[in-house]
Amino acid sequence: MHVFRCIRESCGAAYPLAENIHTCPRCGGLLDVEYAFDREAAAQWPALWSGRRASLRKLDSSGVWRFRELIPFISEPESAELVATLGEGNTPLLDSAAAAGFAGLDAIRFKHQGFNPTGSFKDNGMTCGVTRARALGMRLVGCVSTGNTSASMAAYASYAGLVPVVFIPHGEIALGKLAQALEYGAVTFQVEANFDQILRLIFRMAESLGLYLLNSVNPFRLEGQKTIMAELLEQCGWREPDWIVLPGGNLGNVSAFGKGLRELRDLGLIRRLPRLAVIQAEGAAPLCRMMESAAAELRPVERPQTLATAIKIGAPVSWPKAVRELRASGGVCVAVSEQEIADAKAVIGRAGIGCEPASAATLAGARKLRAAGVVGPDQDVVAILTGHLLKDPDYILRYHAGELECGGRPLESRLANRPRIVAAEAAALEAALREATGDRLTAGG
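Below the sequence we write its predicted structure tokens.
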């Protein structure tokens, strides 16, 4: 029988999946969706999932619902009617010798979730969250967001015929993400408070408003996000990487990844758990501080500060799940500076891959872990790039213009690629091109 299960060891209460709840009614703890999997049948799932790649069915074309045996909260007959999918998932695994050299590794691969329909990993979770809302008969859905969640929810809700409502910290969202939420038709409020304050407020108001909340406190969001691990392992030929490195904001991804990996191990589809490494920005690193001090509870950062807006969260709601998964996998959490993020982002960009600022924290973190000897040079490392390059174009333009700063402190644009102004004359253009390319022009090239 599939149930909700409170993750607190002192509680562990179970509730039917038919209930419309986000947290434990008894103790207020976070909930897992717990399934009664058939381990014997699971042995055939990799072949089944692979075979579906050639299918033209809507569910099989989704990189989430192709793995639907891992997310059976909705039955197969219902799913065709209720699933809201935009063809999410199916994202590439890319390698880069330049990025590996920067990190001091023999090799590194990037699982790029920016290739999703709205440009971030949130789509993997939102297809499940919005599907759940439809199954419950909800009409109004909402989220508090610094960007990617709002864009994803607005798209999926509108596609599914629901009404999306977005609450954004005033002035704390990249314009590319705000533009998406507006274009996808979301009713959008910029609230004069930070992310954590708004989330606490909306969580209390959701029931009275008739609003189905789609932040990562919603366990069905994480069910969709955990399928990223199934797709990654399929791309790895079901050989587990040594490390999976990912940025940490509200900590939903590490919670989802860890749960998915444990389920795959318990089903016998992988032999061991990859180690998880969560990377936070120094100005928004409450989980890192907690783990460094061996504290029992997370102490929020009251005024989080980072240009990587996707991880600018001081009181991450999913921290108990994140701690559970880091401990289960022997994982770590480290913080990186704004300069380290900016440098890593420029390296990823010059490799022709590109990503949003928060994503670049993964390469910065991998480099830091390698320098500390935590990660070996020959270990198999996969870094998760959570969002597309164009999520925050203002950051890119300011970096290359040498105008990037955080908290009043300027950052160095060590790999700046400044645009050049040149006269409309052949001689001037040729001279400028030779200077810019190191005189590498060749006849007929």
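The chain is about 40% helix and 15% strand.
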